[in-house]
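Obj.: predict assembly geometry.
Materials: sequence records (below).
Method: joint structure prediction, all chains together.
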Amino acid sequence: MGPSVTIVDYDAGNLRSVQRACEAVGLRAKISGDPEVVKRADRLIFPGVGTAETAMVTLARLGLDEAVVTFFKTGRPLLGICLGLQILLEHTEEGDRDCLGIIPGRCKRFEFGDPDLKVPQIGWNEVSQSADHALLTGVPAGAEFYFVHSYFAMPDKASHVLAETTFGDRTFASVIGRDNVFATQFHLEKSGRFGLDLLAAFGQWDGAVC
Amino acid sequence: MLSKRVVACLDVKNGELSKGVQFVATEMLGDPVAKAKAYYEDGLDELVFYDITASSDERNIMLDVVQKVAQEIFIPFSVGGGIRTREDAAGLLMAGAEKISLNSAAVLRPELIKECAQAIGTQNTVLSMDVRAVTKNTACPSGYEVVINGGRKSMGIDAIQWARKACALGAGEVVVNSIDADGMKQGYEIKLTRMVAEAISVPVVASGGAGTPAHLQSVLTEGKADAALVASMVHYGDYRVPDIKQYLHDQGIKVRMNY
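Observations (raw structure tokens):
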């Protein structure tokens, strides 16, 4: 049997697509909204679409905000996806809301003078590695991943920026991480072969940066 | 830099690819799942299924197709056709669709867009509009009107105004399908696409009229579209997705080449 992952269920989007992608790369994936199950997981995937405000309210109501932070402190591998990345920071401009604070920094909204730049960013874009990380070694230069987002992460520490992407005239952190947490702004479950490869690598990851 | 997307549209009737596609699909005759998988492996950026099943009691067949496709392909795919309630939309999302596409039902009851956006998120709610050129008049100052039921019924609604209204209600993306250009393989309706793209702040997908890769180039540049939808030009084997993307790449358009 392959490694097992637990996907955090907090009514934030289509968790089944994350689960299907896990299954496609041989991971046993269960979906749970139970804080005790989340804390005890071998590996945790923290996904999410929708608004940060709704997500934070729901996480708090279900006791999952604390559970995710507790899980992070165990040192076991944690993967954030899209909104699940943004919530790992301390604060987001979206609804002026405090988040989990696992990674120091904040989220800001894309703002462009050029009306031809449509927000949200929807589509495929290049991800360029900016720091060494065990999970990024298999990602070829120029590989593109699928994004859908209006806000982007600005970690305080440059060392927490693992890869960058340029949208319009803005270069932002598209992969962030520290210690045993790794998070992608793009949807690796919808990013074709390279997304699946990254998910498979997460299934084997020991939680160490290099 | 964000890539322009090449999107393929498959018409599905009673769980099978509709006649036009079957005509040439040899080893994968009638199976939308196999066709979807072939396009996925060919580097297609996004897939649209359009359910042309006539009766609502056959909709479960479509859910089954969506479920099977979701296990095979890992790029975004949307489903349109016959979605009348937020429950229809949520059901398709649960089955594995990434986005749902609203058309006639939203014209008849615009609140449906809002209901779907609230239930499944703005980014997953797509408005697809069928549009026809008309003589400019007070009801249609842009010279383009919205039609429904596959172009059979005129609604006397201005296309640009409808696109704006749909976005205000929560549509996260707009597909502009020109009924005049559809199936003619003479190119997209560039002027219409550009007018819509300049009027709204969400991405625009151009649809109807693609016959050559040069048509995609025009609509992605001059037409200001974020994505271009193809159907018969790939279904009939005239072009393959990698050929189209290579052409666009050679013309200096940013597309996803590494997959």
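Conclusions so far: The first strand of chain B starts at residue 5 and ends at 13.
To do: check interface contacts against the pulldown list.
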